[in-house]
Amino acid sequence: MSEPRALLSSVFGFDSFRPGQEEIVSAVCAGRDVLAIMPTGGGKSLCYQLPALAREGVTVVVSPLIALMRDQVRALREAGVSAGALTSATDEAEAEEIFSALDAGRLKLLYMAPERLARAGTEALLRRVRPTMIAVDEAHCVSQWGHDFRPDYLEIGRLRERLGCQVTAFTATADAETRAEIVTRLFPETPEVFLRGFDRPNLDLVFRPKDNPRAQLLDFVNARRGQSGIVYCASRARTETLARALGEAGHSTLAYHAGMEADARRHAETRFQREDGLIVCATVAFGMGIDKPDIRYVVHADLPKSIEAYYQEIGRAGRDGLPAETLTLFGADDIRLRRAQIDESLAPDERKEADHGRLNALLGLAETPHCRRRALLAYFGETPEDDCGGCDTCRERPELHDATEAAQKAFSA
Ligand code: ADP
Ligand code: MG
User: Fold this and answer.
1) pLDDT tens across the length of the chain (413 residues)
2) Relative to the CA of 21, which ligand 1 atom is closest?
3) What are phi and psi of 110, to 5 degrees?
4) Residues in Cβ contact with 304 at an 8 Å cutoff, skipping those fewer than 6 apart
5) Ligand 1 pocket member 17 (CB < 6 A)
6) Which of 18, 61, 81 maximizes ligand 1 atoms within 8 Å of its Cβ, making it the mutation to test the pocket?
7) Nearest ligand 1 atom to alpha carbon 42
8) Cβ of 332: how many Cβ atoms within 10 Å?
9) Is the beta carbon of 197 within 6 A of some atom in ligand 1?
10) Which string of b and e fits 142-169 if b means at least 16 CB within 10 Å?
11) Residue-by-residue DSSP string for 133-174
């Protein structure tokens, strides 16, 4: 087995581990089943890529997005690692190349789209190559009550049972319920769980009651001219009206939603990735595949649908670790809309109940008079000792501070 630390610099070009990575990597290299919950941008990929390289054999990675898999495969190949992806976008020549690398025992990482797992032939293929490990990225997709449920993820547990290999799972989004669901669906018994570091101290958290959202958005964006940002909207129409309003105010801006042609969407993603100072007004369709480190703000022009969605969406800002801002506007109409969307969905009742719970948790966060960061972290099971002192509720509590000071004076007098 190669030394992980040496590979960290020789293959990935990093001189140190990010918080949490080293412990996870060594547990994985020791062959243990692991569930790791790390924040967005925390560096989860490395936690399965590095053990894959450090050990013999091939690691199968299941990941929900073709674009993400392609990016990772490209980056790995550039670093000289033998990696390939089998997805619906893989052409025959590429597949042949992957199979022969597999047969020659050269391939280190095989990315597979979840829909590939249930396909005839996949089990036989995997039995033949005997993967060292199955790594499940974005593991919350296995949760039926979660917001990113992918039915094909359920196939992973069945495959693992038949192959009997090590399994590891990674996600940024997991409340206690989701964690329990991941464990029962993916693992033969309770894995080693790494849960830490949800806090993104460089993200400023601000919520504001919505009165005139267009004006509120313009004020915010005008004060941050030239910065790259995402403005999340609840509807396609709204992405277009807000993009137009920002454009008229002289900002470089684009709308993005799932109703656009695939080409237009890709074009928007590429522009956003490459240009500085572009603002994308988007529905939630935008973001999962975006790896732009210098997004300086995320505005929610409308209330997101759950606290998980909120956390994941704001998590796209400030991945470079530099200060970044978030602003969430919320009003009574938003709450009604979100409630109606849940009620009108065709989901079973338990699911609706869970969705209402996640929306309520977000409303609780929006209305908390206490430290907002603590409230957010508490939802994910973290209990920081002190208020952060840097979120909007901490900054804007003059009455409380004054009252405390006055009380202190009164007592010390
Ligand atoms: P996640 O999947 O947890 O959201 P990624 O695996 O995509 O995060 O990593 C986020 C970014 O951090 C990537 O650009 C990656 O190259 C970088 N990164 C990961 N580990 C390290 C490290 N130890 N040192 C420096 N950069 C790192
Ligand atoms: Mg990731």
Assistant:
1) 678 889 998 999 887 787 788 889 999 999 999 999 988 777 899 999 999 999 999 999 999 988 889 999 999 999 999 999 999 889 999 999 999 999 999 999 999 999 999 888 899 999 999 999 999 999 999 998 777 899 999 999 999 999 999 999 999 876 888 999 999 999 999 999 998 677 889 999 999 999 999 999 999 999 999 999 999 999 999 999 999 999 999 999 999 999 999 999 999 999 999 999 999 999 999 986 687 999 999 999 999 999 988 988 998 999 888 999 999 999 999 999 999 999 999 888 988 998 899 999 999 999 999 999 999 988 877 788 899 988 999 999 765 555 455 545 554 44
2) 23
3) -115, 110
4) 232, 284, 310, 313, 328, 362
5) yes
6) 18
7) 3
8) 9
9) no
10) bbbbbbbebebbbbbbebbeebebbbbb
11) EEEETTGGGG-TTSTT--GGGHHHHHHHHHH--EEEEEES--
Distance between CA atoms of 175 and 389, rounded to whole angstroms?
Answer: 25
106 contact partners, CB below 8 Å, separation of at least 6: 82
Ligand 1 centre from 18 Cα, in Å? Answer: 8
Counting from 1 in the atom list of ligand 1, the atom nearest the Cα of 172 is: 3
Tell me, using a 6 A CB cutoff, whether residue 292 lines ligand 1.
no
Please state, in angstroms and rounded to a whole number, the distance separating the CA atoms of residues 158 and 118.
10
Whether 87 lines ligand 1, by a CB cut-off of 6 Å, is: no
Ligand 2 center from residue 40 Cα (angstroms) = 7
C-alpha of residue 292 to centroid of ligand 2, in Å: 13
pTM over 0.95, yes/no: no
Whether 18 lines ligand 1, by a CB cut-off of 6 Å, is yes
φ, ψ dihedrals at 347, nearest 5°: -65, 155
Question: What's the half-sphere exposure (Cβ side, CA atoms, 13 Å) at 197?
Answer: 17
Instruction: Ligand 1, residue 8: give the atom nearest the CA.
Output: 23
